[in-house]
């Protein structure tokens, strides 16, 4: 039969006695160091992932993790997994929806140890890869011709930035482009022979098909055309195209009035250029500029 607390001491009040008795009892009890824990859900490799563990335990138990979706009504378990052991860790993956949803995880070892993770709102909507270079806007000047077409010279003219690359019109485009870049504090572009070939060949294809475009259906994109011309390396690429601008001055002026084309011309990271111009059977010029940083 349990004695009243007053019988344990000769003096002192009940309140004064109860505190040290309770403290002594807690100190004498064995320490329970066994614990479970679980991480907040994250998205890893397109899956919802949580990691749970059981540590500091002397016995063996089944560790179970449930990934739950918070929703109206009862929360839904989207994935459950278990592993048996003393000190044990378990990684659990679940399918991820493209619609943002709120998830959390619950872990238990059926020995009275339970933990709940913080909630996280997650989705696995596809992301746009960091581009290998993408073309500039496809809009391009289409001014009505006012000057009678002239034949395109076939003899290469000296390149103002060094070497002999391209036709006189193509090199004039490079010269005028570099003047605009100088106004904005950018260094001059060097007319590269392989980039000139890539630009000239694309202008020839556009002229032959009477269509201005960065890429024909089923054909290579502008970066692949640069590679096909024998150019290697490069860390950034861009392209401008235009149709029916009759002179180098006209086409460069029109490009500079278009925000997307101007951005390519005034991008100081580019240091190489290829300029190409070919006329169709009607005498209408198709222009191409390609830019590379190397």
From TrEMBL:
Database matches in Gene3D superfamilies: CAP
Keywords, in A-Z order: Signal
Low complexity bias: start-end ranges: 139-168
Secretion signal span: 1-23
Cross-referenced InterPro entries: CAP_dom, CAP_sf
Location of the region described as Disordered in the Swiss-Prot/TrEMBL record: 121-168
Biased composition (Pro residues): 128-138
Pfam families: CAP
Superkingdom of the source species: Bacteria
Domain SCP: from-to ranges: 175-291
PANTHER family from the UniProt entry: SCP DOMAIN-CONTAINING PROTEIN
Name of the protein in its database record: SCP domain-containing protein
Organism: Planobispora rosea
């Amino acid at each position: 039969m349990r004695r009243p607390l007053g019988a344990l001491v000769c003096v002192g009040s009940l309140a004064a006695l109860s505190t040290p008795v309770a403290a002594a009892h807690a100190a004498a009890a064995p320490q329970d160091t066994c614990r479970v824990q679980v991480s907040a859900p994250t998205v890893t490799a397109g899956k919802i992932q949580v990691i749970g563990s059981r540590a500091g335990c002397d016995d063996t138990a089944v560790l179970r993790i449930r990934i739950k979706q918070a929703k109206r009504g009862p929360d839904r378990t989207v994935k459950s997994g278990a592993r048996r052991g003393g000190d044990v860790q378990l990684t659990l993956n679940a399918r991820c929806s493209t619609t943002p949803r709120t998830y959390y995880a619950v872990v238990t070892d059926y020995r009275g140890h339970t933990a709940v993770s913080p909630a996280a709102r997650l989705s696995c909507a596809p992301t746009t890869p960091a581009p290998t270079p993408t073309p500039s806007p496809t809009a391009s000047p289409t001014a009505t011709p006012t000057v009678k077409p002239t034949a395109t010279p076939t003899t290469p003219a000296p390149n103002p930035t060094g070497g002999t690359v391209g036709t006189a019109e193509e090199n004039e485009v490079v010269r005028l482009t570099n003047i605009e870049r100088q106004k904005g504090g950018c260094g001059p572009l060097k007319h590269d022979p392989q980039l000139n070939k890539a630009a000239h060949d694309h202008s020839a294809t556009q002229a032959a098909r009477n269509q201005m475009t960065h890429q024909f259906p089923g054909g290579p994109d502008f970066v692949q055309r640069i590679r096909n011309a024998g150019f290697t390396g490069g860390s950034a690429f861009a392209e401008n195209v235009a149709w029916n601008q009759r002179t180098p001055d006209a086409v460069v002026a029109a490009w500079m009035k278009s925000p997307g084309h101007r951005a390519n011309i005034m991008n100081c990271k580019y240091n190489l250029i290829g300029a190409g111009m070919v006329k169709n059977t009607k005498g209408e010029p198709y222009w191409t500029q390609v830019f590379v940083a190397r």
